[in-house]
Amino acid sequence: MKKIKFDCIIVLANEMDKEGGLNIESVSRIKLACESYFNNPSTTLITCGWDYRKDSKLFIGDVMKNYAVKLGVPSDKIITEINSRDTVGDAFFTKINILKNKEWKNILVTTSDYHVDRTSTIFKFIYGAEYVIKVIGSSSFDSLEKQISEKKSLEAFNLTFQNIIEGDEIKIYERLSTLHPFYNGMIYPKININF
Question: Which residue, of 75, 172, 190, 193, is most buried by count of CB atoms within 10 Å of its CB?
Fold first, then answer.
């Protein structure tokens, strides 16, 4: 089997404390991403995540980047995307803010084992058929409770984005900014993007 050379590795964050200490799941995800980077050092690492804690001004994407640098990834080989608030945002904002302006088509995404299927569905839908997406997960975080939560989240995603063609970023943005509670202003500030 031919080994795919990935153009970039997108690592999804989990949680951190107010001082920027990553939880075990975030550490496991960034370590997996760094392992993949060291096997393919011509690629670029992309860390994701916003300043989600009310008791901290730190962006988890920046904290993940700093952790990768400590593990030996050169800082100039890491791009941080700090607009994303969840997996849907990770996919959407990495596409429109980073990959859209590059020739990168082969993408590796690292997350946790229980989150692989939903992440794969979301990234393939948001990126569209012109991209090759592979998702891998760090072990062992799976549980029945997480599987149930993932199923509910995927159902909500499918309902929110039904009847949209995969990869149609304008239509995806319209739904994200009107129906997704993390982006439509119901819980957090509404996003506004000019295409």
Answer: 172
| pLDDT score, position 2 | 54
Question: Greatest CA span in the chain, whole angstroms?
Answer: 48
pLDDT of residue 1: 41
* Confidence grade of residue 140 (pLDDT, cut at 50, 70, 90): confident
For residue 129, count other CB atoms closer than 10 A to its CB.
9
Which residues neighbour 140 within 8 Å (Cβ) at sequence distance 6 or greater?
113
Q: pTM for the whole thing?
A: 0.94
E strands, the chain, are 8-11, 44-48, 78-81, 106-112, 132-138
Beta strands in 71-117 (DSSP E): 78-81, 106-112
Residue 174 neighbours by CB under 8 Å, 6+ apart: none
What structural domains does the chain harbor? 8-142 (3.40.50.620)
Tokens 């029945």 — which residue?
Answer: 144
Interatomic CA distance for residues 168 and 149, integer angstroms: 27
Question: From edge to edge, which strands make up the β-sheet containing 106-112?
Answer: 78-81, 44-48, 8-11, 106-112, 132-138
Within its chain, how far is the Cα of 180 from the centroid? 16
Higher pLDDT, 194 or 75: 75
| Single-letter residue type at 10 | I
